[in-house]
Amino acid sequence: MQRVIQSVETAKECGLGVNAGHDLTHLNLPLLIARVPNLAEVSIGHHLVSHALLVGMEQAVCDYLSAASGHDSPC
User: Fold this and answer.
1) Rounded to an integer, what distance in angstroms lies between the CA atom of residue 71 and that of residue 22?
2) Are 42 and 18 in contact (CB under 8 A)?
3) Alpha-carbon separation of residue 61 from 4, 35, 65 (angstroms)
4) pLDDT value of position 69
5) Residue from 72, 54, 12, 15 nearest 37 by CA
6) Distance CA 57, CA 15 (A)
7) Is the dihedral of CA 32, 10, 19, 71 positive or negative?
8) Where are the domains positioned within the chain?
């Protein structure tokens, strides 16, 4: 995680935005957002759909909204 944080800080100093993807889930997204607050975008599509196969799309979207906000799901 420290390498990720350092990379994001360096990118920000260079005027670059940082996106994150691959292996993000509703379970690890809150940690990433807490430790790397300057993310421009996160790519969650693959896991969102996979998670929806287990819990349904409505619940999967609610889980991600909760993960991204750091609060209980508004759904």
Assistant:
1) 23
2) no
3) 26, 22, 6
4) 86
5) 12
6) 36
7) positive
8) 2-69
